[in-house]
């Protein structure tokens, strides 16, 4: 593809002991983070957890109260924003209304007196598939098209690190999904380091190579999306990334790499390596899709990982039917079944649940369930 410039590697980004205080309030607490060059990295968390503050410090728009920021090994902590090899794309696109699309994209390059500004801007527009709209003004574009112009404008400057602060927040769901796909494709193609801030877990999971889940100014857990989903280490992560069933239990023994725990009326097993704590009170988790739903009591009981309860909610979603099941002394357990023609369970039915020990995970006993 001739529109794509040669693969220019991004830079490593490192945060060392970053803290940000606003008067008494600590917005970001002692953050340590290394993002290898060329990574699509997502900072994910609820409103107010400190994502934007972290991004603003990387951009040089806010100074950290403590700690250091390194880009490509160079300490940039005291450098002003324009001297850092970073560009930021915000949710509000901030295109210049009186300029054409092409002039908007060329703006930064012209300011840097780049002789090839117009040529590079055209290439940038091709990359986001908008070269045919080069002569329009921003107001003549849709929201998604404006978003792509903002992205092209940032990309043509070839920052080593591209910061994206909820860049898709203003788009409707369909366009948002399409842009997620395109952004990821562009990032893979140009090989820059992307730091993407979002509170949308699906967006973070589908786009990022590495996700850091933030809560109250700290990173709770960081890893590949699948690893975070399969093996959350805290109740916050378990609940923020998808749905989880969590139940209180007490460890009673250990055998063949499995921890045996007693929950109310049910024995559960969890692999030792999937538990953050191996004795005392713990919290056992299992994802809804890992549960098997049976209409009849199982003929042969293993004595482990088996629950029964009453269906208290049934919702049809098209491909699946979701159930909420009240399990005595344990609480509400969510699961679903594929709609393959069998008769779904009804409200009030007694149903039986089981799961494979390999899918349990174990959290600390003091987690709030
Ligand atoms: P959102 O998703 O809502 O944008 P966020 O995770 O990006 O949230 P931040 O904008 O980083 O959150 O804010 C983190 C915390 O710091 C919030 O509690 C916020 O109220 C506080 N905060 C941010 N900027 C300032 C400021 N200039 N002065 C005082 N407090 C601030």
TrEMBL record:
Organism in which the protein naturally occurs: Glutamicibacter bergerei
Nucleotide-binding in keyword set: yes
Location of the ABC transporter domain: 13-241
InterPro entries registered for this protein in UniProt: AAA+_ATPase (IPR003593), ABC_SmlMolc_Importer (IPR050093), ABC_transporter-like_ATP-bd (IPR003439), ABC_transporter-like_CS (IPR017871), Mo/tungstate-bd_C_term_dom (IPR008995), P-loop_NTPase (IPR027417), PotA-like (IPR005893), Transp-assoc_OB_typ2 (IPR013611)
A GO molecular-function descriptor: ATP binding
Protein name: Spermidine/putrescine import ATP-binding protein PotA
Matches recorded under SMART domains: AAA (SM00382)
SUPFAM superfamilies per UniProt: MOP-like, P-loop containing nucleoside triphosphate hydrolases
Oligomer status and interactors: The complex is composed of two ATP-binding proteins (PotA), two transmembrane proteins (PotB and PotC) and a solute-binding protein (PotD).
E.C. no: 7.6.2.11
Reaction catalysis annotation: ATP + H2O + polyamine-[polyamine-binding protein]Side 1 = ADP + phosphate + polyamineSide 2 + [polyamine-binding protein]Side 1
Presence of the UniProt keyword Kinase in the record: no
Function, as annotated: Part of the ABC transporter complex PotABCD involved in spermidine/putrescine import. Responsible for energy coupling to the transport system.
Assigned protein family: Belongs to the ABC transporter superfamily. Spermidine/putrescine importer (TC 3.A.1.11.1) family.
UniProt keyword terms in alphabetical order: ATP-binding, Cell membrane, Membrane, Nucleotide-binding, Translocase, Transport
Gene: potA
């Amino acid at each position: 593809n001739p529109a794509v410039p040669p693969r220019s590697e991004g830079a490593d980004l490192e945060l060392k002991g970053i803290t940000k205080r606003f008067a008494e309030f600590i917005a970001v607490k002692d953050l340590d983070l290394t993002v290898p060059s060329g990574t699509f990295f997502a900072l994910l968390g609820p409103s107010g957890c400190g994502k934007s503050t972290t991004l603003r410090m990387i951009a040089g728009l806010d100074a950290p109260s403590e700690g250091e920021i390194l880009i490509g090994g160079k300490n940039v902590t005291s450098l002003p924003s324009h001297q850092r090899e970073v560009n930021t794309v915000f949710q509000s696109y901030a295109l210049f209304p009186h300029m054409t699309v092409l002039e908007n994209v060329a703006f930064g390059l012209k300011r840097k007196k780049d002789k090839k500004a117009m040529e590079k801007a055209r290439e940038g527009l091709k990359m986001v598939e908008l070269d045919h709209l080069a002569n329009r003004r921003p107001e003549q574009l849709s929201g998604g098209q404006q978003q792509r112009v903002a992205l092209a404008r940032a990309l043509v400057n070839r920052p080593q690190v591209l910061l994206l602060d909820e860049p898709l927040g203003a788009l409707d769901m369909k366009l948002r999904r399409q842009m997620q796909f395109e952004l990821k494709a562009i990032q893979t193609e140009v090989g820059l380091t992307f730091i993407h801030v979002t509170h949308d877990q699906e967006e973070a999971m589908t786009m990022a190579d590495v996700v850091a889940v933030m809560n109250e100014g700290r990173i709770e857990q960081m890893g590949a999306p699948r690893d975070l989903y399969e093996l959350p280490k805290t109740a916050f992560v378990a609940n923020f990334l998808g749905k989880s069933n969590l139940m209180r239990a007490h460890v009673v023994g250990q055998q063949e790499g499995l921890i045996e725990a007693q929950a109310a009326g049910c024995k559960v097993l969890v692999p030792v390596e999937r538990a953050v704590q191996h004795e005392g009170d713990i919290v056992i988790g299992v994802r809804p899709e890992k549960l098997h739903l049976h209409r009849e009591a199982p003929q042969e009981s293993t004595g482990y990982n088996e629950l029964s309860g009453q269906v208290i909610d049934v919702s049809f979603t098209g491909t699946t039917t979701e159930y909420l099941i009240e399990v005595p002394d344990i609480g509400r357990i969510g699961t679903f079944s594929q709609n393959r023609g069998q008769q779904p369970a009804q409200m009030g039915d007694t149903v039986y649940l089981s799961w494979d020990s390999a899918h349990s995970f174990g959290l600390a006993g003091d987690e709030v369930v």
